[in-house]
Amino acid sequence: MNNSNSSKKETMKEETNKSIFKIALEETLHSKNHFPTHLFIFVAVTLVSLIIAYIFPFSLVLTVPFVIIPAYFSYSSVQTVTTKKHLPASFMVMFKHYFSRFFLGGYRLLTGFLKSFLGYLVTQTGLMLIFEPLVFSKIDAYKALMNKYENSLNLEEFAKDYAVVIETSEMKKYLFIISLTALLVATCIFIQHIARNSIKMRRNLFIPEPFPMRTFTPIEKKVIKEHRKEWFKSYFYSTWFIQVLVILFGVGGGVFSFFFLKDYDYLSGYIIMLFAIMIVLLFFANYINNVQDAIYIKFMPTFEETYVNMTLEFISKYKDKINVSDEDLQKIQDFLNNKKEGQNKTQQDTKEEPEQKEEINKEDENK
After folding, report:
1. If pLDDT is split at 50, 70 and 90, which confidence band does 329 have?
2. What percent of the chain has pLDDT over 70?
3. CA–CA distance, 281 with 262 (Å, rounded to integer)
4. What is the model's pLDDT at position 239?
5. Span 180-213, pLDDT tens digits
6. What is the Cα–Cα distance from 61 to 67, expressed in whole angstroms?
7. Distance CA 80, CA 88 (A)
8. Residue 217: CA atoms inside 13 Å, Cβ hemisphere, count?
9. Are 297 and 351 in contact (CB under 8 A)?
10. 107, 179, 191, 297: most buried, per Cβ within 10 A?
């Protein structure tokens, strides 16, 4: 009997994952404008930023957090508000909203950069350890360098000689491959980080009463922890093919750079790789946005329930210190529950709108 119930639950979850893919796909295909103005602006901003980065690679340190990510937020939020809430929205207005206290910090960019940097270091170190005995040890210039400093190592002189060996030997092309591979891993980690936090950013777009996204992070973490399997299945079931394409196009950009770039400039190669990755992401931009909307709608009741429970737990734990009576605690609980029910009803109405539209369209076709 228990096995039967467990099997039914798994089947229901699988159907929910399929429905998210189906909802997002249908909304994308049935969209009247597949390349809206706000998407065009985001594409233009991104391409200009990457062109500048090709000339000045380290400009990405500024353009990613202050231009590209805010532009992505603007496109994504305008798309959501216009298609789900049926309200007018402006790209520039949403761009400014990104820097407001209600959204700033929601993507947790510093955490994303640190994760990416750690992924870069681990990948590069691992590949260096693999390449050293298999490839580098067979290069004469490298062997001579290691023999020269085998007994005494002067780090300053070693660094100078190592730089010369890299520039004058075939080591450079292998280091180019290692660097680009590590950068590809770091980029994929960062993209996944932004995608996951994009779902959380929906809350202030759907709910009439917003609050700082920083305060929503503990709620999001708790929900994901308690529903980890269902959460990741919902996301990866609907986007796995895009992630595969991102890796393939990234590798393709790296291969192109390897054969056509002079002097194996890995920074220029990385920008070319980003161009290739952006082709995939921009092509599927509307679909990705619809997937994130669908996942948020699915977990919205869980988010709100967790928010209410965490608030009540905090007040109950510290009610003596903040002078809250049992009667006041009950009033707060009733208020939060009523507020949650109202928000869930609003969200349910939003969820049902596409189904109602589809029924109306079918009736029109029959007529």
Report:
1. low
2. 82
3. 28
4. 94
5. 999 999 999 999 999 999 999 999 998 877 889 9
6. 10
7. 11
8. 13
9. yes
10. 107
Residue 240: CB atoms within 10 Å: 11
Closest CA to 267 of 49, 109, 60, 124: 60
Alpha-carbon distance values, 230 to 110, 235, 342 (Å): 27, 9, 25
pLDDT bracket for residue 360 (50, 70, 90): very low
Q: Output the CA angle 134-136-138, nearest 5 degrees.
A: 75
What is the pTM (predicted TM-score) of this model?
0.84
Crossing angle for the helix pair 266-283 and 171-200, to the nearest 10 degrees: 30
Q: Is the distance from CB of 120 to CB of 186 less than 8 angstroms?
A: yes
End-to-end Cα spacing for the chain: 48
Return phi, psi of residue 315, to 5°.
-65, -40
Which residues lie below 8 Å from residue 32, measured CB to CB, with a gap of 6+?
Answer: none
Q: Which two tokens stand for residue 264?
A: 């194996």
Angle at 11 between CA 6 and CA 12, to 5 degrees: 100
pLDDT tens track for 120-175: 999 999 999 999 999 988 888 888 888 888 777 777 888 888 888 888 768 889 99
Contact (CB, 8 A) for 120 and 185? yes
Among 210, 208, 206, smallest CA distance to 353 is for 206
pLDDT of residue 345: 56
Q: Which amino acid is at 322?
A: I
* Concatenated DSSP letters of 132-148: HHHTGGGSHHHHHHHHH
